[in-house]
Specification:
With 358 residues, this protein is mainly alpha-helical. It has 14 helices and no strands. It has one domain. It comes from Aerococcus christensenii.
Length: 358
């Protein structure tokens, strides 16, 4: 960021002038302002971080080459091997879970029989692995040689194995939905239905045989989430229009409950709670424009595969978001945006008739 600022690449003159960019800028300023008004100091820090990320995002979207998409996925898949061994060592007790109490005593929660590797929480690690599993599927479909296909298949299975070690129950639904969408988007409708049937059957059989970790705690899990959602809804009723900035739940929960957690554990509820109707409307416009971008990309057969990748990643966010807000973290949001922000340049390359740009 310092280098980019020093070279003038982050100056206002370099900012995009379209409405989507203006809406995103307005949203981040709104998030900062509303946090200051309600003395949500954690929200202020996060909003400042969002503004910094926004500056870099403008530069990245302008500078990222279309072939960078391949580099992101390949580097991620290679790195996932290291993460798998890290997760295995944590799972088998060779190394201990990271201790974050130096940040806050409230963060002394441990996760028995769950791994987080180098991530802040097993659920954040799970979302990263969900992304990587889709990367592996993308590269498997795209590969021409059988050796390449076998390599990407092995990497995908490694990530699915690591995903099982996280003990994230929502991930099974996420993978089923994301794989179905991926196959459907590239026109493999029979394979989409087959993947839905096979993965669902495997999940049911594994559940019946007791192989799915933490599913014996579902009653407690729903009770726990229910209490969080009830608290969030009560807080939302008291400030429906404006919210109180990022992580509003953590800022206000003590007025309604003794259940401490950082967010509302539902992406739709948490966005409304944190930013209110006004902020949510500002955020909805860029998402609407993203859908329009996807629609335009669908007109180009050469973009069918990367489009399937991006739509599948979005499905991961919303499916996992039913029970958590795992996208709201620098690692998960970073890898997602690194892929999504290449979409405009992909479309531009296709429109200009470039060949072999992927």
């Amino acid at each position: 960021m310092i280098i980019l600022a020093a070279t003038g690449l982050l100056s206002v003159k370099q900012w995009p002038k379209h409405r989507t960019a203006k809406s995103i800028i307005l949203f981040t300023v709104y998030a900062l302002g509303i946090s200051l008004i309600f003395h949500n100091w954690v929200g202020v820090l996060i909003a400042v971080g969002m503004i910094i990320l926004l500056f870099f995002g403008f530069y990245y979207a302008r500078a990222a080459r279309v072939d960078y998409l391949e580099e992101i996925m390949n580097v991620s898949l290679i790195a996932s091997i290291i993460l798998m061994f890290f997760a295995m060592m944590e799972h088998y007790g060779i190394i201990a879970e990271w201790d974050y109490t130096f940040l806050s005593k409230a963060m002394n929660k441990v996760h028995p029989s769950r791994v987080e590797a180098t991530f802040f929480n097993p659920n954040y690690f799970a979302m990263i692995l969900e992304f990587f599993s889709i990367f592996g599927l993308y590269q498997f479909i795209k590969a021409k040689r059988w050796l390449q296909k076998l390599t990407y298949l092995a990497l995908t299975l490694c990530n699915l194995y690591s995903l099982a070690l996280t003990g994230c129950r929502t991930s099974y639904l996420v993978i089923i939905v994301a794989y179905y969408i991926f196959f459907f988007m590239i026109g493999y409708k029979k394979q989409a239905i087959l993947s839905l049937i096979v993965l669902t059957t495997l999940a049911i059989v594994a559940f019946g045989m007791g192989y799915l970790p933490r599913f014996n705690e579902l009653t407690f899990a729903f009770s726990d989430r229910g209490e969080i959602w009830e608290t969030a809804c009560r807080a939302l009723k008291d400030n429906f229009l404006f919210g109180q900035g990022p992580l509003t739940y953590m800022h206000v929960y003590s007025h309604y409950s003794t259940h401490y957690t950082q967010h509302a554990h539902n992406i739709f509820l948490d966005i409304l709670l944190s930013y209110g109707l006004v902020g949510t409307t500002l955020l909805a416009y860029p998402f609407y424009q993203l859908l329009k971008l996807f629609k335009r990309m669908s007109a180009y057969p050469a973009l069918r595969l990367p489009l399937a990748l991006m739509v599948s990643l979005v499905s991961v966010i919303f499916t996992h978001g039913l029970t958590d807000v795992t996208i709201f973290w620098i690692q998960t949001a970073g890898i997602f945006l690194a892929v999504i922000l290449i979409a405009p340049n992909l479309l531009k390359s296709a429109q200009e008739g470039e060949k072999n740009f992927l």
